[in-house]
Amino acid sequence: MNDLLLKALHCEPISRPPIWLMRQAGRFMPAYRQLREKYSFRTLITTPELACHITQLPLKMFNPDGAIVFSDILILAEVFGFKIDFKENQGIQLIEPKGQPKIHLHETLNCVSQTIQLLKKTIDVPLIGFCGGPYTVGKYMNRLSFEWLQQITQATIDYLQMQIAAGVDVIQIFDSWAGYLTPSEFHTLSLPYLKQIMEALTPSKIPIIVFCRGSSRFLQELIQLNPKCIGFDWEKEMIELRQTVPNHMAVQGNLDPEILKGDLNHLKLKAQKLIESMQNQKGFIVNLGHGVLPETPVENVQWFIDYVKSFRSS
Ligand code: CP3
To answer: pTM to 2 decimals?
Structure first.
């Protein structure tokens, strides 16, 4: 197995940084768009054979150093009786549950377990499982009371344990919206729940990446959570972040997805600046600062991944 990603997470010396991209399987790929003409988004993420196939599309095209399970953070809401609905031009919606649904986590999310098991038989790069941060999931569910955040946290822990049992090698927590909270809101609505998740997963020893948009705003708090890695957006330079984050903790990011989407020459300039500035730094994983945008040219993604893969630390 290509274990560059795992080595980078453990801050071991490696010849070049590993690369994978958030939303590396998605609308920017013609093959994905073709599937979406036939199937709803919900069908794609709840049918293991389809989800497994889509997870592998970017692996076959670009050969990145990691795979991320094709799913969505909002699938967890289905455990509470919500239903995911994705309509073109309206984005994602959660349809409210009727009455008091019974919680059957393992039944509802068994499809994800099956997808992971199928993938583990076929891929030769580490598989990244994931969840949303309880605050971010609660925000989409319109359920932000402490009682609800606590219930979402418990379900998230069970869900991650299920993914680990099914075989994922790494976990990324996407608390996408937490970084934009005020400090006091962050301390009450996000941090305590992230802490519970981190503590519950400590015995499993699985490497955990914590990602928020705006994570550099709460850097000290995120460091205190003691994840293996922190994922950053492009608000600050990566080298500056690398010098602040403790040496035993990896950093991931942080090219602006608009740059990946834009002019190829500009992309080349910015990507070279990022990679060269991080030359010889341990614990660096190349990624975007948020997901690949739907209009991104396939050639740009191909160039970016090839460039990082051809890089050699001196
Ligand atoms: O990264 C990957 O390739 C793995 C799959 C993945 C998806 N969503 C697939 C998806 C992951 C890790 C996510 C995470 C996710 N989902 C987050 C956290 C990261 C972030 O983007 O901030 C959030 C907030 C969601 C919720 C969500 N899902 C929204 C708000 C939307 C609509 C907006 C959009 O970007 O399309 C989705 C839909 C979604 N999730 C799509 C995909 C491929 C697009 C579906 C389609 O158009 O077919």
So the answer is: 0.97
